[in-house]
Structure formats: C-alpha cells, structure tokens
Amino acid sequence: MNSGREVSDGRLTVEGFSVAARAFADKWKIHNQSFPPWSWVPLINRTLHLSNQQEEGYLSLEEILILSSLEESPEDESLNVATDCLEKEESVDHTILVQNQENEAHYYDFHIVYSSSYKVPVLYFRGYCSGGQPLSLDVIKKDLPSCSVSLLHESKWTFITQEHPYLNRPWFKLHPCGTEDWIKLLSQSSISTGCQMPVDLYLVSWFSVVGQVVGLRIPLEMLN
Amino acid sequence: MSEKETSPTILQFAPLNSSVDEGFWHSFSSLKLDKLGIDDSPIPITGFYGPCSHPQVSNHLTLLSESLPLDEQSSVASTSHGNRNKCPVPGILYNTNTLESFDKLDKQSLLKAEANKIWDDIQSGKALEDPAVLSRFLVISFADLKKWSFRYWFAFPALVLDPPASLVELKPASEYFSSEEAESVSAACNEWRNSDLTTDVPFFLVSVSSDSKASIRHLKDWEACQGDHHKLLFGFYDPCHLPNNPGWPLRNYLALIRARWSLETVWFFCYRESRGFADLNLSLVGQASVTLASGESAETVPNSVGWELNKGKRVPRSISLANSMDPTRLAVSAVDLNLKLMRWRALPSLDLNVLSSVKCLLLGAGTLGCQVARTLMGWGIRNITFVDYGKVAMSNPVRQSLYTFEDCVGGEFKAVAAVKSLKQIFPAMESSGVVMAIPMPGHPISSQEEDSVLADCKRLSELIESHDAVFLLTDTRESRWLPSLLCANANKIAINAALGFDSYMVMRHGAGPTSLSDDMQNLDMNKTNKQRLGCYFCNDVVAPQDSMTDRTLDQQCTVTRPGLAPIAGALAVELLVGVLQHPLGINAKGDNSSSSNGGNNDDSPLGILPHQIRSSVSQFSQITLLGQASNSCTACSETVISEYRERGNSFLLEAINHPTYLEDLTGLTELKKAANSFNLDWEDDDTDDEDVAVHM
C-alpha cells in the first residue's frame, strides 16, 4: 500500500494518518467554527518505533461543554464530616457572592488516535464534570443525542473501556473493527477519483460517520 | 442598556472554583508511591486558569498532571493546549498521610501564610513583574492510596479590603467603549492573546488614547502609561461568566492597586472570551471605589479569606478513582471486556453470567488440574477449588503449569501452591485448596483409619454438593470411583479426563439415575436408564481395583507425552462450557462429529456437544464416542446409588475394603459367570488398566 496520496483498501499508514490529521484539523478550523479547533499532540520518546522520521501523534479536542440538568451530577463521596469545618475565625465576608446551584456542566475530551494493529484511526473519549470527577458510561449516554444510542445498537458498535495508548488511563473508545470495510464503501462512492480516496479526505470521511455517534457533526462543506 | 448609576453597593466577587483533572491524581499517586513515601512536606504545584470562554459557565482553576513538579520525562509531550487557556499560577499542596492529620491541619494559618506571600509580592513589586502570583492558591489533601480516594480542599487567598470596596458602576464593555474604541480594544486583546509572550499574563493595563486607539501594556509599565491616555483600565482574565459580578482575581488586584498606586477610583476591565476571541459583550467594565489605607494599616497584612465552598458548605471535596486506578479492578474489567468482545463479535448468544458464577471443583492439581484451571480462567470462571494431597515435586513445574521452582524448594502442597498461583495470575480469583486424599476402593484400610477415611468421604461429598461442576483429574482409575458416585448421587456435572502414554480420553458423565429434576423434558429420559449418558465406569466389567501396588515404577508414575495434558485439559474445559451453555445442561444428549447438524445449532452455539472424546497422538487422530449408562455400573447405576443412600458409610467401607462387593452388588459377578460359561476368547487390545473399555 502506498503511503502516498490515495487509500484504496480502507486502511491508513502511520504517515498517512499524520497527513490526514493535519488536513482534517485545517478543514475543521475553517468550516466548523462553532467548535474549538483540534490540536495535534506529538509523541516523544517513542522507543518502539522504527527509523522513519515521521512525527507521530494524535488529534485532541478537549473541554467540549455540554450542560445538563442538576440531577445528573454525581454524588460526592459520603463526607462524614461536621457541617462546618472551618473555625469561627473566618467570619462571614459580605464581599463574596453567594451562588445558587447552576446546571451541572459536563466536559468531554476527544482524541483521534492511530491504531497500528487495525491500521485505522480510533476515537477515544472521556467525560468529566466541572470538579474533575469522571463520568460513567450511563451518564455519558444521556448526554449523547438519542439517535446515536440507537445507531450504536444497530451497527453493533460499542463504547468500550480500554487503556488509552499514551495516557495510561481508562478511556472509552469506539471499537475500530469494521472501520476498514465502511471506509472502503465510502471511497467507492467518493466522486473524485473513482475507487480511491485521497489521504487528506480520509479523516474527514471517517469522522463524518464516527462523529455522529458522539454527537459531533461536521458541516458538509468539509467533505469537498 | 441599564447603567448602574445608583448609590454604590459593596462590590461582590464571584468565587473561583477548582477543577482537578483525573490525571493530576494519577500523577500524584505515582509521585507519592515512587518518590515521596511518607514525606509530607508541602509540594509546590502549578494551577492553570484562563478567561471565561462560555456565556453560561465559569472557568475554573485547574490542576492537571503537569501541575506537579516534573523531573522525569513523560512519554507524551505535555499536552500542547497552547498556553492561552492555561495561565500558570503558583500554588502549594499540603498532603497528609492520615485522615486525622488532614482534619487537624490549621487551615487558618495555612491560608494566612499564603496570603502573606501575596502581600509580600505586592510590597516588593514582584507582583508587577509576574502578576500571576496575585492568584496564588493553596490545596490541602489526603490521598488514600489503598482505596484510591482523594479528599481535598482548595483555598484562593484574597486580601480583604477594610472597609470593603464599593461598586460605582458595572456594565458590558461594549456599552462602555465607543464602537471605534471597542474594535481597537478587541484587536489589541486578541493580539495580546495570540502572542506566546503575553498570552499567559493574566493582569494587564488597557490604555485607550483620545483617538480611540487601544493598547495593552504590562502592569510594570504603569508609570510609563501616565498622561498619554484618555482611558486607562486595569484589565484581567476573568474566569467568571456572570453579568453582574467580577471574578475572584479582582480582589488581590485591587489590593495591589491600592497599595502600589494609592488610587481611590479604579476602572477595571473583566476580560472574557468566546470561541477564542475577545467578547466585549460578555466582558465587563466597572468602576470601583476604594478607601485608602493610612498609616500603620497600610503596612500590615490585611486579613484573608478564600476557602472554597462545596455546594455551599464549608467542607472539603472528595473523589473516588478506584475504577480507573485500582489495578485489580482494571484487571477485572479488562478480562470481562475480552469475554464481551468474544460474545459481541462471534457468539451473541453466549451466556457470560453462568460462566462467572459457576463453581468448579478440581480433583487433582497435577498436569491435568493445572491446565484445566488455566483454561477455566480464560473463560472468565472465577471460582475454583483444588483437592490434592501431594506436594510439588522437582519434576512438576515443567509440566504442571501453575507451579514454579520456588514451590518445590519450599515443599508446598499442590493444593495450596495452585491457589497462590491463580491469585498471582488474576487477583480477583476466588480459589481455595483442600489437602486431602480421595478414598479409593480396592485399597483396604485398617480399623484405626476408618474414621478419618469416612471423614474424608464426607468432606468430599460436601465439596461436591457445594460446587456446580466437578473435574476428575486424578492419576488413577480407582480414585475416580467415589467422586463419580457422589456426582451421580448429587446430579452434578462431572468432567473426566484421563491420560495414557500417548492417548487421552475426555468425557462428561451423564445425569444421575434419580435426578430430581422436575424439568418435563427429562421425564422420559429417567424412565429408562438407557437414555442417560454413561460415566467413566459404565463400560467396565471389573470394579475398580488397586492398580498401583506391585507395579513397576514406570507404571506407577503416570508417564505421558507432555503435549497430552494441555490438550486433554483444554478439551475438558471446552466440554464443560458446552454443557453450561446448553439449555439442557447435564441432560444434553451426546452428539457425534458425524451428527446431522455437524455444526452450530440453536441449542448449542458452540457446536456439537459430544459425550466422549478419545484421541491418540501417535496417529494425531481424534474421535467422538457415545455411550449409554449401564444398569450394572459400579458407580452410577441405580442399584449402587440407592444402596449408598440407604447404607451410607457402611456401604462405603465395604466398597473400599472388598473389591468384589461392588461386582456382586451390581450383578457383574453373575454376568461374568454367564459370559465365561460361553468360553469365548476375549481379545484384549491392551493391558493398560487405564484404557480398559470392553464393550458389551
């Protein structure tokens, strides 16, 4: 498979991924300004990889905010503490605004990471609330658009918890098997070069499907 | 367009809130475990914040994994968020080693100490050079690294102005500036934000000239700014989003302004953004009125406040990260995931719950026992009990996959060493070992031994009752008799595996003869015993005897080709899983490889479920066989079972001490007499007792 301009078998090389990632991030910045831009996180100290000089990394989109109603916020651990832990010395300060409980904000981080075993990109994500506490899958599913939950059931995709390959913590990911197949379908119907898909459109096409599952849509202009 | 021109009110600040990324706790735990140990000296850390970026949600002061002092290289470049939203702010972490010492920390003096540092930075001028120190903060914490839970409390020290500052007016910046000025201010802010040199400087001056040109300057340039401006505002990154209140950083900012420049009227600019650009509708401009301190009070440190509230209460926050940090939990979820993937990808009808709840009893912890245990673990089976009376011998570790050299040297009992080994492989295993010999027929016992042997029988019976599946993996024929009988009696799934030198046999016993199942499907099965599948002894014409005494050494030690035990052990487990997945379970009928379905059917998603599998590795051949239960079986026939039920221990003693008893009981004696009277030549294929299976 050439690491050049086109992809014909649904898969990407490491170099292809870097190229596709930059193209995707650029197009996103231009066409999708309702969202913050994706940033490229380079990887250093990768002792495993071969001699090729290509920079490896992943795409990161973080702190996407979804407001949800208060009931969703997770409980604090039961605090067996007295109701007031501060001594009386700190007197009431009238210059501090007393805030009402507002809606709970949920934040989401998305990483697009290259899988060298499947040779396709994989979407990793996690959710957390404003204090930093991680959100469980049940809570996350409530934040997703309802159509994506049914899409998951139908297409046998699953969110699974796995080690993030670089951060050594459990993140959720969309399982990558089958990606190769539907990318091939997409490239067969791509207008530009017959059955080939240009590398720089790979991630855009991939994300047009995958993004829907997590509620991130891309505008059609990006596909041109 | 409301202007707050009414009489000045006390200026109220919106408190700053904390946000601790999971990564911070991960990094801190490593730091504590690897480096700090019980050292609880304060740790300098860095917090990050940026201007508000959303009209409905305030920003927080965040701790990330890079907040901790680094001295090792991490394998990932520190996430390049760009510094614009991560202005670094100095802080300090006091982590205690016990919950009691956490509660006992003198919070007021810790807060005062940090407030003093801010005051000193104001007095010395450091705050002008590096204004981020105005937002210095403090965290106290207790990290419970056994339960992976963290209790913590932030304080954002704010110097209290006495009397408090009052608010003369506050309005959106777009209303304060003319449209020309606003455009220029936005442009200047965006430039400030886009330059790496200035983007993380959270306090600055906004100078607007009379021809509406705005410029942003560092605080230290204040003197230089005097005179050539039409408007001069004190700008700062405001994390707060509220339209009627400025954010917390303004507090120490006002203290600085009052102390350094003695201004009574302060025009301030709460800088907020949206979508990465200056947003002058969201940003605020306000005028504060400050009473100057005089004389002594100008020199003394003001009081301070700033402990963060938790849902309005003055209590610490806590978080549990056991699910993502406890290694045992991580192992469990990884193993579960593996099984779920199998079900999802290949076997949607696989019942994983039955596998995780089944209790397996392994009689024998040798070559077969070790392999069976490992394969059971692969299927997600968590509950395994070993019965074996032997110790790990020097020749064992190479063939018995749960043992190591240390076990031999230590003279460990196999049942004990096996349990230890399972836990080392997968900490969530529930496993126990019983060091016990299985009473065998044909090995007569003295009267002194009777009690202990009967106790062992009872123990074995209880073990079988309390498990769901029993594997017969011992190294003699006769040691399988009692377990076979007890399994038939209790109607428990029994899987039998036996090895010859270059052959093996794996089979599942049929249901017991008087199985009390009220499943309607089984009624016609129980009518005639012939419908039951046979057990290991069903095809014998001799009762199990002593096969061990008077044999030569090589016949006493079962010597087999090493490849056989792993194959037979693995097949035994696959057979069990097939039974467990089959809707009829122990009553499933036996299939042959040549069965009509020849493959997956609805009943058995895993494929056919044979009764017996026999193989010879010298031929690399494997066949499946089907055998029905025999009415004259010495282990599972109705005769024997009812005799056992009726006479209990005396039956057992007779069977153990008198080998012909069982033959008489079951009528085998009669049968043999009748057969002998015909004077036929019986051709024995082999003389190896292990493989005697004479078909009637």
Characterize the structure shown.
The complex is a heterodimer of chains A (224) and B (696). With 224 residues, chain A is α+β, with helices and mostly antiparallel strands. Chain A has helices at residues 14-31, 137-143, 146-155, 179-188, 199-213; strands at residues 6-7, 39-42, 57-68, 104-115, 120-129, 159-163, 170-174, 197-198. In chain A, the strands form 2 sheets. Chain A has a 6-stranded antiparallel sheet, covered by helices on one side. Chain B is an alpha/beta fold. Chain B contains 23 helices and 25 strands. In chain B, the strands form 5 sheets. Chain B has an 8-stranded mixed sheet, with helices on both faces. In chain B, a hairpin with a 2-residue loop joins strand 13 (273-274) and strand 14. In chain B, helix 3 packs across helix 8 (249-261). The radius of gyration of chain B is 41 Å and the shape is elongated. Chains A and B meet through strand 2, strand 3 and strand 6 of A and strand 2, helix 1, strand 4, strand 17 and helix 11 of B. Chain A: InterPro entries: Atg3/Atg10. Chain A: It comes from Camelina sativa (False flax). Chain A: Belongs to the ATG10 family. Chain A: Pfam families: Autophagy_act_C. Chain A: This is Ubiquitin-like-conjugating enzyme ATG10.
Give a concise summary.
Chain A has 224 residues and is α+β, with helices and mostly antiparallel strands.
Radius of gyration of chain A: 21 Å
State the end-to-end distance of chain B.
Answer: 105 Å
The helix tally of chain B amounts to: 23
Approximate helicity band of chain A: 25-40%
Q: Flag low-confidence runs of chain A.
A: 72-83
Overall pLDDT level of chain A: 75
Strand tally of chain A: 8
Strand content of chain B: 15-25%
Going across the major beta sheet of chain B, what is the strand order? 20-19-18-21-22-23-24-25
For the largest beta-sheet of chain B, the strand count, sense and barrel status come to: 8 strands, mixed
For the terminal residues of chain A, how far apart are their CA atoms? 24 Å
Helix/strand/pairing category of chain A: alpha+beta
Bulk shape of chain A: elongated
Oligomer: heterodimer
Overall mean pLDDT of chain B: 86
Strand order of the largest sheet of chain A: 2-3-4-5-7-6
Number of E-state strands of chain B:
25
Note the beta-strand portion of chain A: 15-25%
Q: Provide the helix percentage of chain B.
A: 25-40%
Biggest sheet record of chain A: 6 strands, antiparallel
